[in-house]
Amino acid sequence: MGADVRDLVFVPNATTGVNSVLRSLTFSLEDEILTTNHEYNACRNALDFIASRTGARVVVAKVPFPIDSPEQVVAAVIERVSPKTRLVLLDHVTSQTGLIFPIQELAKELQQRGVDTLVDGAHAPGMISLDLREIGVTYYAGNCHKWLCAPKGAAFLYVRRDKQSEIRPLTISHGTNSPRTDKTRFQLEFDWTGTDDPTAYMCVPEAIAFMGSLLPGGWTEWRQQNHQLVLQGRRLLCEALEVQPPCPEEMIGSMAVVPMPTTLENRDFMSIHDELFDKFGIQVQVMPWQEKPRLLVRISAQIYNTFEQYEYLAKVLKGLCC
Question: H/E element holding 23?
């Protein structure tokens, strides 16, 4: 992750990490919290909750989709920064649209304006190369159960050293007054928040080692293989459904979104999802979007996937459109 161990703590999931930061900070009526229209629903709900309790205002930067370049993300976010902007919450890899946001460039631009950055990096660890020191964000939450393939319930929260005294876990417990001196207060508070099963956390090193051992080129080859496979799958689906790719290849990691044809616009997204699973044995995300295209299908590529699976999906989706 490119971070000192003293700056990382385990949390059950990235949403808990995001909530821990938001619930720890103090906001006022004069403050604005900036996010984008691609923000993950759970974390957007957390923002709205904080705003309702503190009077702070949630400002939404509209990042276009389909999109032509990462520069459009930077322009959309920076345009909505004001003297009142206190914090910016961003996805590293967006859940609905599968885009890799240019977090390092955004963090640099925001830091120059005196604004802290909180990143929901749920999908990033394992999918893309991640160096938390280099990207320069203030706070970062990431999941280990997705692309790292650790058990569910394993995630981490990174907090920059100068901010750690402000950030507290959602559950205040024994770490608050622990006499131990071998760890920082930040680690002590998050390490033991009450009776729980830490097995998922303990499996993370094994998951990293195992996944990195599956190909001769280790993690680098693993990421590249997944990236190439999802691009092949995207091209195939776009051709089969006669739609245009909604973003450049450079903004894709191991997930890609393809717009559904207009013939399916009036279908409920969950009914399509369930039909694909129940009738054809296909597990894939089908999601609504705020504007045209109204429906999106999000494919993923992991080491166990094959190109034939995307061919099958393309054939089935083409049949649904007719």
Answer: helix 14-24
Q: Are 145 and 152 in contact (CB under 8 A)?
A: yes
pTM to 2 decimal places? 0.95
- pLDDT tens, position by position, 131-175: 999 999 999 999 999 999 999 999 999 999 999 999 999 999 999
Give me the sheet containing 255-259, strands edge to edge: 255-259, 295-300, 285-288
**CA–CA gap between residue 273 and residue 283 (Å, rounded):** 8
User: Quick one: tokens of 277?
Assistant: 């699973």
Phi first, then psi: give them for residue 234, nearest 5 degrees.
-65, -45
215 inside domain? no
Q: Are residues 117 and 14 in the same domain?
A: yes
The three-class DSSP label of residue 252 is coil
Query: For 8, left (φ over 0), alpha (ψ -120 to 50), or beta?
Result: beta
Among 207, 229, 262, the domain-final residue is: 207
Residue closest to 2 by CA, chosen among 190, 126, 134: 134
Asked whether residue 171 is assigned to any structural domain, the reply reads yes
> 45 and 179 in one domain?
yes
Q: How many domains, in total, are found in the chain?
A: 2
Q: Of 207, 228, 260, which one is at a domain's C-terminal end?
A: 207
| Residue 214 within a domain | no
Question: How many CA atoms lie within 13 Å of 83's alpha carbon, on the beta-carbon side?
Answer: 0
Among 80, 74, 86, 73, CA closest to 32: 86
- Contact criterion met (CB below 8 Å) for 231 and 245: no
User: Residue 190: left if φ>0, alpha if ψ -120 to 50, beta else—which one?
Assistant: alpha
Reported as a pLDDT band with limits 50, 70 and 90, residue 66 is very high
- Indicate the Cα dihedral angle 13, 16, 18, 21, nearest 10°: -140
Position 5, amino acid:
V
If you ran DSSP here, which 8-state letter would residue 261 be given?
A: P
